[in-house]
Design brief:
- There is one protein chain.
- The protein is α+β, with helices and mostly antiparallel strands.
- The chain has one domain: Double-stranded beta-helix, CATH 3.60.160.10.
- 18% of the residues lie in helices and 41% in strands.
- The chain has a six-stranded antiparallel sheet with strand order 5-6-3-10-13-8.
- The longest helix is centred in the first third of the chain and has 13 residues.
- The protein is globular.
- 34% of the residues are buried.
Length: 264
């Protein structure tokens, strides 16, 4: 018997997706602050300290410790609970913060745990625990960057993550290894072994443009990858928004900026 609330859902859209959750009376879904899009009448929202899971019902200090760990992953100490308080069915929807896809996880199919990037979590059925997952290996801790501190989603209910661009799911066989840019990892099942490897080679270090470390994911298990990490998107936007255009000469670049309204 499941201990988390059982919810129905529908993912809407192709690039800028949202997930619509259908709640029965007294069912609750938890979401990150700022993810809310719309809800039917009869749903009440409440900001709570922590994630509302059973692990946090043991006292204030337990809630404080759990919420403090969430700060290390870049998330808020608070979450918002949406509860259907009337009869019949009611819907509430949550939207992705940037172009990409929403990934549904039925945690009961993954032995109760999925590990994901620290900014990937969107919403989940009440009872799902959102905690922190430290990579234990020294090399991962020193050089893992955004892949060192990750989130863990635990329980037997539905959880939803979002990612940039398109999603690729790979099922790794026992012993099969996949090399990945750390920013492209969205999530993986708990059986997967995660580590950081040195690329090697002077030319790769200075001229490769891809960094000098990459992640290795070793099976068995499932891996979800994104084609457009938000950090990569942000760096490209910043590069094009500051200074003259690299693809144009000084004269043409100046004229282009004038025609675009960027010059005077």
């Amino acid at each position: 018997m499941k201990t988390n609330h059982e919810i129905d859902y529908n993912i809407i859209g192709s690039e800028m997706q949202c997930v619509e959750i259908e709640l029965d009376p007294q069912e609750t879904v938890m979401a990150e602050p700022g993810a809310f899009m719309y809800m039917d009448e009869g749903i009440e929202m409440e900001t709570i300290f922590g994630d509302g899971s059973a692990q946090q019902n043991t006292g204030f200090m337990s809630k404080l410790f759990s919420a403090g760990k969430r700060l290390l992953t870049g998330e808020s100490m608070f979450m918002t609970a949406y509860t259907h308080t009337t009869s019949g069915k009611a819907k509430v929807a949550f939207a992705s913060p940037y172009p990409g896809k929403i990934i549904p996880f039925d945690l009961s199919q993954y032995n109760g745990k999925i590990i994901c990037q620290k900014d990937a979590f969107l919403c989940a059925a009440k009872g799902v625990s959102i905690g922190i997952e430290f990579q234990k290996k020294l090399g991962t801790g020193l050089f893992g960057g955004e892949g060192f501190i990750m989130q863990k989603l635990e329980g037997d209910g539905m959880a939803f993550c979002h990612a940039g661009g398109h999603i690729i799911r790979r099922t790794l066989r026992p012993g099969e290894t996949l090399r990945v840019d750390t920013g492209c990892i969205v999530a993986y099942s708990q059986e997967v072994d995660y580590d950081i490897k040195y690329v090697g080679g002077v030319k790769n270090m200075f001229f490769g443009g891809e960094g000098i470390f990459f992640a290795t994911l070793k099976g068995p298990g499932d891996v979800w990858l994104q084609t457009l990490p938000i950090s990569r998107l942000a760096s490209r936007v910043l590069a094009y928004g500051v200074g003259p255009r690299k693809e144009e000469g000084s004269i043409l670049g100046g004229l282009g900026n004038i025609f675009d309204g960027d010059g005077v």
